[in-house]
Write a structure and sequence with these properties.
Elements: E1 13-17, H1 34-49, E2 52-56, H2 73-83, E3 87-89, H3 96-103, E4 110-112, H4 120-124, H5 127-134, E5 139-142, E6 166-168, H6 170-183, E7 190-194, H7 203-209, E8 215-218, H8 223-229, E9 233-234, H9 244-257, E10 260-262, E11 266-270, E12 279-283, E13 286-287, E14 292-296, H10 298-309, E15 313-317, H11 330-344, E16 348-351, H12 354-362, E17 371-372, H13 376-384, H14 389-395
Parallel strand pairs: 1-2, 1-5, 2-4, 3-4, 5-6, 7-8, 7-15, 8-10, 9-13, 15-16, 16-17
Antiparallel strand pairs: 11-12, 11-14
Helix pairs in contact: 7-13, 8-9, 10-11
């Protein structure tokens, strides 16, 4: 892969698309700096080479104009501390003021541009906006895996203006290499664990995985739609009634493909969506009326863990239950423990998706896994076999 480790960036203005879409509290303090830390190797490479690091990103979902709470100026102090160097800030991301700020940069300097999404042209993939961005640098580097599945101006269109000077950043390179490790020649048994609230949004990846994996474990809220598809009573559990027929078809398709589809056999149920609610355990197909399933039960944990511990390649996207509440976190925690143990025993483990990553951090598993992805949507689309615009733009 054509990445920046292959070249010297001395004296170059290096335009780096990062993913600094980080959560901020009401005082604009960063709650989780994982995405910033993930981009540091690429930024440090530019600094070490004596290049000028020009950082561009989006933050939040502004309504196409300036909003104080989404300004990237809130990231510069923290980035300065992490890099141990003063980081500058430009109040715009295109135009004369930005060009002027860049002209004042010295080799080794770092400048953060204002939020790209203050312009509607960013998400629209506008060519003229991309051209304005391209004027800012000599070299374009995409290091934002979290937005690599978007054909936005700064993630794919801009690359057209750097035909001979476009590169993958070190993070994006690692992301793709890790996914390739899992998908191209996986050590077997190969197990995928798909959780989360709904089947919607994960249908294509489930179908695609049937051609790749030996085992597919289903957990989280989507499991109750499968339980209903098997004729079960699921009480007040989350269900997608319009996806029950699809769930039946997926069960049939797994058998036809020779894939072991593992569904939860039991459930931890609550009277209401509350950590302090009355709790009851049952088979997943016999949840009493008035109760809702919020986590997988102990029998499911035992069965799933046994399969995971026997696996050599593991992909995990989506929690097993409402892990944010202590009383319904055990399923997600125990499955995470099993993945960590399998990794220690030599398996390759790849975890991605916002909730899965949050769970991994909550339970202290980060250092016990092979790779923690920074992109949920991009990871799912890559698993589906889709081309990611931000990746193909560099490759073409």
């Amino acid at each position: 892969m054509k990445n920046i480790s292959d070249i010297s960036l001395k004296g170059k203005k290096v335009l780096i698309r990062v993913d600094f879409n980080v959560p901020l509290d009401k005082h604009f303090n960063i709650n989780d700096d994982s995405r910033i830390i993930a981009a540091l190797p690429t930024i440090k490479k530019v600094i070490a080479d004596g290049g000028k690091a020009i950082i561009m990103s989006h933050l939040g979902r502004p309504k196409n104009s300036y909003e104080e709470k989404f300004s990237l100026k809130h990231t510069t102090k923290h980035l300065s501390n992490l890099l141990e160097t003063e980081v500058g800030f430009s109040v715009d991301c295109i135009g004369e003021k930005t060009l002027s700020d860049i002209s004042k940069m010295k080799n080794g300097d770092v400048l953060v541009l204002e939020n790209l999404r203050f312009y509607s042209q960013e998400k629209a993939g506008d060519k003229e906006f991309a051209k304005q961005l391209a004027k800012l640098g000599d070299v374009y580097v995409n290091d934002a895996f979290g937005t690599a599945h978007r054909a936005h101006a700064s993630t794919s269109i801009i690359a057209n203006y750097f035909p001979n000077n476009k590169y993958f950043g070190l993070l994006l390179c690692n992301e793709i290499n890790s996914l390739e490790t899992a998908l191209k020649n996986p050590k077997r048994p190969f197990t995928a664990i798909i959780g989360g609230a709904k089947i919607t949004g994960k249908i294509d990846v489930i179908v695609s995985l049937f051609d790749k994996v030996d085992n597919l474990i289903i957990g989280g809220g989507m499991a109750y739609t499968f339980a209903k598809a098997m004729g079960g009573n699921i009480g007040n559990s989350l269900v997608e009634d319009d996806k029950v027929a699809l769930a039946k078809n997926l069960i049939t398709a797994a058998k036809a493909k020779g894939v072991q589809l593992l569904l939860p056999s039991d459930s931890v149920n609550a009277k209401e969506f509350n950590n302090n609610a009355i709790i009851q355990h049952s088979k997943i197909i016999t949840i009493p009326d008035g109760f809702m399933g919020l986590d997988i039960g102990s029998d499911s944990i035992t069965h799933f863990s046994k399969v995971i511990l026997n696996s050599k390649t593991i992909i995990w996207n989506g929690p097993m239950g409402v892990f944010e509440m202590d009383n319904f976190s055990n399923g997600t925690k125990q499955i995470g423990e099993a993945i960590c143990k399998a990794t220690t025993n030599g398996a390759f483990s790849l975890v991605g998706g916002g909730d899965s990553v949050a769970a991994v951090k909550q339970f202290g598993f980060t250092e016990k896994l092979s790779y923690l992805s920074t992109g949920g949507g991009a990871m799912l689309e890559y698993l589906e076999g889709k081309k990611l615009p931000g990746v193909t733009a560099i490759q073409n």
